[in-house]
What we know:
- Helices cover 39% and strands 15% of the residues.
- It is α+β, with helices and mostly antiparallel strands.
- The protein has a single domain, classed as Alpha-Beta Plaits, CATH 3.30.70.
- Strand 2 (49-56) and strand 3 form a beta hairpin.
- The N and C termini lie far apart (43 Å).
Amino acid sequence: MVRAPRDWSPGTTYHVTARGNRKQDLFHDYEDRRKYLTYLQDTKDKYPTTIHAYCLMSNHIHLLIETHHVPLEKIIRTLHTRYAVYFNKKYDYVGHVFQRRYGSTKIDTPSYFIKVSRYIHYNPVEAKLTVHPEKYPWSSYPFYINAIDNPLLSKERTLNYFPAPKVKRYKDYVDKEVQDEGLHQITIKK
Length: 190
């Protein structure tokens, strides 16, 4: 059966998720996570996109990604095919690495954008992998908070939703576990 094409238009931003097949780990070690990020950078170079946030958990991934001229489906297929070939070869596995097709949710408002960014960056805390999100090394959050450049990541759009001092305000937003109802506590610039 042929899959229906996903709704896509240039300039659309998505929250992308993908889980390991049968909820198994996608990453067994440091090298696996580095390889995934390398393939993400290679794919971004081949099909220009903007990565606003990412988090590599042990059995799933989160990306906040903005497409430009290439459909999201082609971007993720390229990235995940390369990673699956690497993973299966390294561990002498066969079959699917990812469970089903990746998930994607279109981001259509500034408030939804920053909520998803917070959700992605706070995911390791929710999973009890760390107490502080900036301590989790497989997330884009440390690059935001420590003002470290990363060619994979674009921080401008996220930070531009916050008044000065932008990094501190974004950190406060993530650290305070602001619930959706509490968003009025922060003035979001449109």
